Amino acid sequence: MTTTAKSLNVVLCWHMHQPYYREGLKGAYHLPWVYLHGIKDYSDMAAHLERYPEMRTVVNFAPVLLEQLDDYAQQLDVLLKHGKPTQDHMLNLLSGVERIPSDAASRLRIVRDCQRCNAARMIHPYPAFHRLLSMIGVTDETSGDSAGLPWLMGYLSEQYFLDLLTWYHLVWLGHSLRQLPLVRRLMAQERNYSAADRHELLHLIQNCIAGLIPRYRALAQRGQIELSMTPYGHPIVPLLNDFSNLRDAMPDAPVPDAPGYPGGAERSRWHLAHGVEVFERYFGMKPSGVWLSEGGVSEDALAQLDKMNFSWTASGEGVWRNSCDKSGCPPEQTQTKRALFSPAQVDGFKTRVFFRDDGLSDLIGFKYSDWHADDAVGDFVQHLENIATFFGKEANRHVVSIILDGENAWEYYPDNGHHFLNSLYAVLSNHPTLKIGTFAEQVAHIPSKPMKRLAAGSWVYGSFSTWIGSNDKNRGWDYLVAAKQAYDSVVASGKLNVDQLAMATRQLAVCEGSDWFWWFGDYNPASSVSDFEQLYRTQLRELYRLLGVAPPALLDVPLSSGGGWAENAGTMRRNAG
Questions:
Q1: Do 300 and 433 belong together in one domain?
Q2: Residue-range definition of the domain harbouring residue 549
Q3: How many domains are there within the chain?
Q4: Quick check: is 186 in a domain?
Q5: How many CB atoms lie under 10 A from the CB of residue 257?
Q6: What are the mean pLDDT values of the chain's consecutive 10-residue runs (577 residues total)?
Q7: Do residues 459 and 478 both lie within one domain?
Q8: Fewer CB near the terminus (10 Å): N or C of the chain?
Q9: With the C-alpha atoms ordered 81, 82, 87, 91, is the resulting torsion angle positive or negative?
Q10: In a domain, 56, yes or no
């Protein structure tokens, strides 16, 4: 692509993340979102980049997602070759290795599980799938007479549930996979899927999952994308380091009973170092940049990145604004957002900090799904062209950072966002005044702006309110602190051998993940809160078991019940997946 002195640098960063869904390190998968997003979003996102070799992006992976994708690929391979069940209930039912149950409660669970998608985009457009659900009075994730459904379950044939499971997996396939002859044939067939049909579908799923990491590795090796990472278990590093980091944006918020997370800075370093190990194992390279979980930054976290020689990190516009407010950025920079479009060099630190343009990122994440693709892309590019015009001849000294989830928005777009992304990549990869690149390139070529101090916060509101500072979230931290104290005591006693210590340490990392705290609170949907808080308590109990310590009785009692709707939280995720 030819560039001119007026070229504005633009970085699109897709964050790929799913929490650790297994019950303990080797137990059953509690939720299926890793493999479902694998066959839908991670596959499609790679396909779009492969279709447009001139397009450049940053793709950020959470290491626990990489491990789970690898595990699914291996388990599916064993299932297909040897008939051994996987650790995922839905895949076992689809394959037939697990028979359709006869009791009403288990059958009702299958129905409910097969409703877990955006009905407007993934049920209603498919008459055969819609018909299977409407015949029992259930057409979306909330409808249906719950009182009458258990009675009805006994009158449905096993084939009904096999067809339902088949269709659920068909609609979760990404647009690129739906073009395959096998998928077209299965969709046209509509019903009466045989064991052979379902095994062909499972082979497709396995091949897709097994190919994801190699596809992204190949894209990086040919220089089309930059791969970056998140700390291993997706913890909020500033909160592990010091609970008082919440005070920059939330000076009066209630705090957990514990004064802080014991040994938290050491745990943050472990997540970063182990994350690099996992990343290098899968991609054969060390990442130059880190999207700290949820864009959660602080100066103590920045110091940790410096010590590991990372060249860049990033956060949200709210953090940039809070940092300017507290360090006295020139008014013209704050009011016009001039400094937002430059990497920041925080006094005393080497690692550059980029800041997400919240407005542009959220247009993709939340708004454009209901627009015609051409209108949405036209609007988006017009915003970027306006920024380029504003900077004029200095446009090439600035960068606009667009950062958002690479999986959760597309469920709300027609055809999994195919038309929008196809048009966006076509326009951006050939635009005369917009230069699409990566963060590593910007660090090397774009001058940074000095920043006197970095305010602690995340991409959500510029604060940590999504993870701490309310009763349920603080209680979750108190549970984790107690478990860490038990871990420290047992480790100090020398009772664990090398293998036992490694297992307990990895299980602790799972418990330290951010997603548990995300879902605690009455503003979130009750079903999602229940899923995550149950799994969180299960993970903590498993940690105690690995330590040889009796878990406290309070872990048998739910710590949060929810009752709202996820969009009210101001978050990127619109559902539990």
A1: yes
A2: 471-569
A3: 3
A4: yes
A5: 11
A6: 66 97 96 98 98 98 98 98 98 98 95 95 97 88 62 93 98 98 98 98 98 98 98 98 96 94 98 98 98 98 98 97 77 71 96 98 97 98 96 95 97 98 97 96 95 96 96 96 98 98 98 95 83 96 98 94 54 42
A7: no
A8: N
A9: positive
A10: no
